[in-house]
Structures are given as C-alpha cells and as structure tokens.
Amino acid sequence: xxxxxxxxxxxxxxxxxxxxxxxxxxLELNRFVVVNPATLPLPSSGLTYEAYMRISSVMLxxxxxxxxxxxWENSEGAKIEYLQAQDSGKEIFFFEERHQKLRxxxxxxxxxxx
Length: 114
Hints:
Layout: E1 2-7, H1 16-29, E2 32-35, H2 49-61, E3 65-68, H3 76-87, E4 91-94, H4 95-107
Parallel strand pairs: 1-2, 1-3, 3-4
Helix pairs in contact: 2-3
C-alpha cells in the first residue's frame, strides 16, 4: 500500500474537514494509506498558519505520493505543497482524475483500483 498526502484548500473553506474526509475514504478504499492534514487540530487551538505549514511539510515528506483535490490551485499552502512534492520527486496525481478513472473502470466491468 502506498502512502499519499492529501492536499487542497483548507483556509477559508468551512467544510474542509468533510471534503478531505470524503476524499480520504475513497483513497483508502483503493488501498492507499492517507496522510490527511485536515485531521490536525482546529485553528482555534492556537496553532499559527506557519505552524500548520511546517507540520504539513513533514507529513508530505513522509509520503510516497501527493494527491491534490480540485480546489488546490485556490490555496497558497497547497501550491507550496505541490512544489515541494514536485521538487522531491514524489508521484503527483489529482483526485478528480483518479476518481473518474476508477468510475470508468468500474462501469466497464473492471472494478480494479486505479
């Protein structure tokens, strides 16, 4: 099973936890071990944005791949994570594209994980 860091817009998205959890569940069903930054303490915990970014950077470093949600380009943090993943040679994929391939395979009778 491959470890994958899940990236997308968190700051300014009131439903980020639900969005990340739904994506993580689908990835886990397809045999990924998901490292999910949306599970970090809420901003009301007192952690600063910079602290979140430092923690997330370490989480990303420990993964083999990075999966980007559809809104990642609207997030300064996710853009930084994209560059970090790219610079470190990690496999990068986009959740919606991967999910669509899985649906297509399932409809074609393949049913195999993508």
